[in-house]
Amino acid sequence: MGGNVKSQNMINHNLKASYTVENSFIMPLFIIIIVLLLYVCFYIHDAVILKNVALKLAIRAESCEEDRQRAELRQEGIDYIIEKTICTQNIDVTIENNSGNIKVTCTGYFSSALKWMNQTGLLNQSATVNKSRPDNYIRMINAINNVIR
């Protein structure tokens, strides 16, 4: 009878130890998946911030005529990106003024979670806005009104 009780205790200990072995494989896998999901969320967050700044600066740069105003606008964009992004570094903003449109490009390096591999991802977002000419539109509408009347 005494040996039977001892063997029952051994079986119970073996079953409990199996849970520990399973968890030793499952928990690291679970933690790696969570970290990778957070990493992807940070990347998407920073990409959205850069796209948002590119769009806002393109709209605001449309009304700027002087290079000094564009330089101030560029610096505002850089400061905003530095303040709001999580993992993006070495940020640069360029504002190009072509004859018919304004193109703003925001560039940064998304630092990798695997720094030991020296991996960084280039994050590049741009926006283009056509210059509006309200004086031409007003003249065209006035001419159409004169023809209709």
* Estimated helix fraction: 55-70%
Order of helices and strands: HHEEEH
| Residue-averaged pLDDT | 82
What is the number of helical segments per DSSP (H or I, 4+ residues)? 3
Q: How far apart are the termini?
A: 114 Å
**Spans of at least 5 consecutive residues with low confidence:** none
Count of distinct structural domains:
1
* Main sheet: strands, sense, barrel: 3 strands, antiparallel
Structural class: alpha+beta
The number of strands is 3
Spatial strand order of the main sheet = 1-2-3
Rg calculated over all Cα atoms: 30 Å
Strand proportion: 15-25%
Globally, the shape reads elongated
Q: How does this model look, in words?
A:
- With 149 residues, this protein is α+β, with helices and mostly antiparallel strands.
- It has one domain (2-148).
- The protein is built from 3 helices and 3 strands.
- It has helices at 2-61, 67-84, 134-148, and strands at 88-97, 101-111, 120-130.
- It has a 3-stranded antiparallel sheet with strand order 1-2-3, covered by helices on one side.
- A hairpin with an 8-residue loop joins strand 2 (101-111) and strand 3.
- Helix 1 (2-61) runs antiparallel to helix 2.
- The protein is elongated, with a radius of gyration of 30 Å.
- The termini are far apart.
Keyphrases for this structure?
3 helices; 149 residues
